């Protein structure tokens, strides 16, 4: 209470979103040290005298005063929220209709579908390995049609490759620091890159720079497109994640809530929710239509580096420095599985994007692993890299997985060769 009272008298917010008691005390100590260094002793003394006077006076109902707990948003943010609500209502209705049809249709055999998908995943084998850059690779992303792959590296350069031959198509130069993530738009062949130079950039597939998103105060970590392709989310070491309008480049939302750097970001396939994770070992789920933090998922004991929503709309996977992958059930608001997945930290988690029949994890133990989403048992271990794997992506049909590593190589793991061999055997 004394810390809050002192902050109030110094004209500072009495608490920040997601701030704990020790962090609030540290903030006050740093503020007082700064005021002292700037020679503003009068302000400190006045706050102290006010506190003494308040203590000697009769007790008042000070804590009953209602302070605003939000910052008023812009008209553009309101329009974006309405647009996201309309989009998500349609998408969720289609998802639920599809789920009901699968449940009620006697011709639909979901178990057989899952078995087939897991058999495909179990037959994944190294199809191609290519040197991606002179410096270690940090991120990779497949286009929505699976015909292109984008990679980024410590050199600050991003590259586009044709699939499945993995031949270089174009080079994207524009960042002044290392590039930390790259992602393709889910609706077009635009792609976005994030960098330690505190900016994100939007490019077309020919390699032309279309737009730069500036505003973060520290280096960026990860980047993600909203399923509609109209909005872009970025996470940063300035403890915030931000939402941008792709068309105009305007910053729509600056969201605080993590007490340490924000690292991973994933949009729900309906477009209604977004999950963020950070170095505070917390996963937060936000409702984009209202701006509320609707879930704070605690369970990891070390920083969380990757999150991914399942296409079934009910599950969220997260992985981090405690070497575990947790599966969260959004309906029960708790962790339903804990996978002791790797012998080193997990750098990325991704559900198979079409049905979510399997989950892929990448790790610093130089392997990527595939897990069944039915019981989260191991299906396949992809080993071949000579250094830590920084990122992975799964093709829309689940036929292949790409991984990029600190050993500077792109590796393509495919099940199509196995299919071809089986057909030849039958012939």
Automatic annotation (TrEMBL):
It holds the Pfam family PRP4. The keyword Hydrolase does not apply. One of its GO terms (biological process) is mRNA splicing, via spliceosome. This is Pre-mRNA processing factor 4 (PRP4)-like domain-containing protein. WD repeats lie at residues 172-204, 213-254, 255-296, 297-338, 339-381, 382-423. One of its GO terms (cellular component) is U4/U6 x U5 tri-snRNP complex. Keywords: Repeat, WD repeat. One of its GO terms (molecular function) is U6 snRNA binding. It comes from the Eukaryota. Residues 1-51 form the Pre-mRNA processing factor 4 (PRP4)-like domain. The lineage of its organism: Eukaryota, Viridiplantae, Streptophyta, Embryophyta, Tracheophyta. InterPro entries: PRP4-like, PRP4-like_sf, WD40/YVTN_repeat-like_dom_sf, WD40_PAC1, WD40_repeat_CS, WD40_repeat_dom_sf, WD40_rpt. The keyword Transport does not apply. It comes from Anisodus acutangulus.
